[in-house]
Amino acid sequence: MSAAGILPLLDPSSARELCALLPWFVAGTLSPDEDALVGTHLTTCLRCQHELARQRMVQVAGSYRPSGTDLETSLARLRRSAEIAAPHNTARRLLGLLMRSNLALRWISLLQIAIIVGLALWLTERHSAVQMAAADLRNNSIANVLVIFRPQTTIQDVQRILAVSHSRVIEGPMATGAYLLTVSDGQRSQAILWMRLQTAVLLAQPLNSS
Q1: Burial (0-12, 13-18, 19+ Cβ within 10 Å), 179
Q2: Helix (H, G, I), strand (E, B) or coil at 43
Q3: Residue 6 confidence (pLDDT) above 60
Q4: Does the predicted TM-score (pTM) go above 0.85?
Q5: With 80 as the cut, is the pLDDT of residue 181 above it?
Q6: Which of 3, 30, 158, 205 could be cross-linked to 34 through a Cys-Cys bond (beta carbons 3.0 to 4.6 Å apart)?
Q7: 8 A C-beta contact, residue 182 and residue 167
Q8: Where are the alpha helices (DSSP H) in the chain?
């Protein structure tokens, strides 16, 4: 397996910094270089993809501005209809009550919109959590090696070690700096032994051992 076949890896601090740029990425206010860097990172990071979807939902909810035009037009039509069809005092008093309740109706409309948006956000976050949990289960079932690199290890050294050991990244880097890898069963023991000899590696151990 050559180094060209290894996906570009980011250290934990870089991944967190790119995730922090997502609100500006959604708003389209990043520089071209930053925008391209975040876009490239999103193609390989499942967690940032879910966060991007949530940020876009928040942007849509925040940019919505309900208008009272339709409500006022409907009330005006109701008033004209009442004056024509029911000229009695009772109808006029009822119409006056409806007009005075204009503000209350607006608040009710805003409350309904807030409930709908909140429910949509909750459902989106719940769906994302379920998808992430399912992805973690799949990753844990595929990964058979855990490796932790020293914090000062460069991306180039990480890529070189993974390439030489014929390892493929399933998930990482995690918050602890750990990577979940998969190595063919016939090469796993030799790969772990070789990685343990590298000064850049703090820990290398097998997973799902039979």
Answers
A1: buried
A2: coil
A3: no
A4: no
A5: yes
A6: 30
A7: yes
A8: 12-20, 22-27, 32-42, 46-63, 69-85, 89-100, 102-142, 155-164, 185-196
